[in-house]
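Per-residue structure
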Amino acid sequence: MARILCGDTEFGYDEAGGGEPAVVLIHAGLADRRMWAHQLRSLAADHRVIRYDCRGHGETAAGGEPRPHHEDLLALMDALEVPRAALIGCSMGGSYAVEAALAAPDRVTALALISPGLSGRPWPEDMLLEAAERVHARIPVERREVYRAGGTTEHLLVDALATAEAHIEWMVAGPRRDLSALPHEARELAVQMYREHLERLWSGEEPPREEVLPDPLPGTRLDRVVAPTLVINGLDDVPAVQEVAAEVAAGIPGARRIDLPDTGHLAPLEHPAEVTDILRAFLASASTVPTREDPGTPAAPA
């Protein structure tokens, strides 16, 4: 494991392999870079592969000057001297990849978006109610309010574990399954990553960090993405998340979509070999596809 300074923030990251294009792996919001263990190892046979912890996750500090996550991603690429890369993002990591492709299209050779989110897109009321019932209700409301305000309680460890298990069951296994549907190692790591993240958030040691959204939001500009794009959707994921995957696949010109049965929110962790094979084939095919011209760029004079 290594660290690198990007601006005023030190990021935890790993890299392996060599070969072009480089590949950058961007984790889900309820995980950290450990979710990419199989992809880091396997894709390194043909590519320089980098995985990193987003700001406030894993080994990366939460402080520093607030800015959108895609700016951190591009700064990390600068620091590691990666001029261009294929970006593979899961959940909100998928949105950060899209945002980077919109901000710097010449630096992104391909996009693989797994159960992608979209920064700033509101979740439907029925999803929020389900989350409240299945996840937030695991701990008393008065303690939830303390954590939300940046404080901590003596029940921190118990509350973090209960919340992590409930959230992983609801989203990573999926609302129609339970934790037993996940492979043992995937289940244990998913709960561990989210539990550790909650313990960090609720420790009272770091002030609550307000998310900085890109302007304009990525969901309003999907038609401007010019990189070859693959969207992977888990058919056991939360329905509202699957709706976002469908929206992204339909909104990005030429995007291809793959639906995986018996798969929840963290497909790279739940089905590592299958997802890696899909990604390897996509990266090989994307390298032969000419990048479309940015529709916002005037055509060159004849």
Remarks:
- The two ends are 51 Å apart (CA to CA).
- Residues 2-119+212-287 form a domain with the Rossmann fold fold (CATH 3.40.50.1820).
- Residues 48 and 249 are 27 Å apart (CA to CA).
